[in-house]
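Input record, target 12 of the design panel.
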């Protein structure tokens, strides 16, 4: 079998585009009604990560792909020193005075945009006051990186609106820094990179240390990816996400006392980790062990994708989830139940939690033959256990952020 892209038929892609147009048209219409002018329209996608979570901030490898769920933003200059930001999904608006220093606010979603504005200023790029309305078709808190999609839509939209052409690398850097400094999440580079650099029907293997990357064609003929959403929302800024990063740094610093040439996890080996095991707490040892194993899985995954070995790739997904749950401890009972239920279904080649963890979605690689029945069985297992239905999303892999 050969391993795909996620848009398996022209009909699915056509239906997807129709749904996207409805969201885009709604945002454009509301912008016109509220501000009485024509906007610049921007779209930035969310992402799935086929394998390789919590490796990005440890200088490792990841395998993400941009998807057809993301953020649409309408923008236009308003001739003032003020920016009015309207979140359609949250039903809220925030006004920012450009004469003042840009600082984080108590309105969480606004910080992603204000952080981008601050990053553009720090690059020496000037912009005038503007109005913006945004919304999307990406479930917030589901692990599909709605925050990175918002940041990337903002950095592309504001820079183009003001006539500033900036490089893709600069856009990625500004978006990531906004999340670090204004949202308080010390995320790696993967989410913003995938949102800007995504390519239709391709995953990308990204080296998060050098930022070198390669596209890997997804050509799934007899199976595809399906997301099951636990609807357990995670707020990474208030979660254990930053704590995991600290634990990895602690482990690396301890190991380097014996192996000073290991400047990052990329130079670490399991032998080095075992050599320092007695100096590490069990928790920190487990965190380091997972990162080393997960990096290895990403490398192997690329070979399986190239060779069309879907079932072998699926086994890596199961192994990844086991590590995320038991060693890295970022799963939850809802995610674990969905993955364990998937293991019992023959048409499901692989399943894993995806994203920062503590909620969100599982990513499932499911054979087309028996797919609907498998999804129904997974839904039933989840509903029996938790008394509610999970969200189900089939996604297409698309190009990255763009003017539309």
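The sequence produced for target 12 reads:
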């Amino acid at each position: 079998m050969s391993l795909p892209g996620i848009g398996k038929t022209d009909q699915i892609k056509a239906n997807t585009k129709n749904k996207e147009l409805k969201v885009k048209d709604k945002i454009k219409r509301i912008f016109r009604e509220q501000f009485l002018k024509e906007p610049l329209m921007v779209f930035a996608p969310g992402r799935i990560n086929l394998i390789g979570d919590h490796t990005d901030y440890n200088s490792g490898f990841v395998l993400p792909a941009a998807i057809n769920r993301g953020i649409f933003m309408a923008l236009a200059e308003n001739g003032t020193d003020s920016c009015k930001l309207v979140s359609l999904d949250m039903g809220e608006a925030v006004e920012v005075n450009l004469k003042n220093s840009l600082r984080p606010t108590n309105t969480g979603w606004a910080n992603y945009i204000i952080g981008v504005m601050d990053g553009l200023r720090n690059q020496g790029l000037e912009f005038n006051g503007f109005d913006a309305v945004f919304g999307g078709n990406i479930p917030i808190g589901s692990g599909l990186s709605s925050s990175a999609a918002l940041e990337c839509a903002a950095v592309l939209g504001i820079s183009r609106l003001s006539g500033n052409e900036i490089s893709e690398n600069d856009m990625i850097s500004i978006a990531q820094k906004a999340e670090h400094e204004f949202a308080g999440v010390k995320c790696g580079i993967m989410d913003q990179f995938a949102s800007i650099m995504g390519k239709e029907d391709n995953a990308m293997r990204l080296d998060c240390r050098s930022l070198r990357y390669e596209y890997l064609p997804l050509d799934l003929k007899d199976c595809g990816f399906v997301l099951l959403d636990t609807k357990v929302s995670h707020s990474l800024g208030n979660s254990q996400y930053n704590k995991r990063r600290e634990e990895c740094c602690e482990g690396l610093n301890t190991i380097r006392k014996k192996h000073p040439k290991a400047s990052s996890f990329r130079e670490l080996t399991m032998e080095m980790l075992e050599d320092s095991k007695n100096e590490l707490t069990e928790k920190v040892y487990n965190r380091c062990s997972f990162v080393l194993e997960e990096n290895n899985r990403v490398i192997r995954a690329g070979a399986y994708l190239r060779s069309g070995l879907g079932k072998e790739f699926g086994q890596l997904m199961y192994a990844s989830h086991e590590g995320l749950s038991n060693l890295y401890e970022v799963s939850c009972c809802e995610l674990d139940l969905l993955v364990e239920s998937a293991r019992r279904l023959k048409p499901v080649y692989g399943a894993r939690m995806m994203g920062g963890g503590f909620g969100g979605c599982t990513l499932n690689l499911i054979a087309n033959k028996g797919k609907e029945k498998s999804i129904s069985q997974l839904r039933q297992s989840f509903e029996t256990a938790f008394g509610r239905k999970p969200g189900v999303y089939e996604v297409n892999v698309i190009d990255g952020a763009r003017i539309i």
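Residues 1-12 have pLDDT under 50 and may be disordered.
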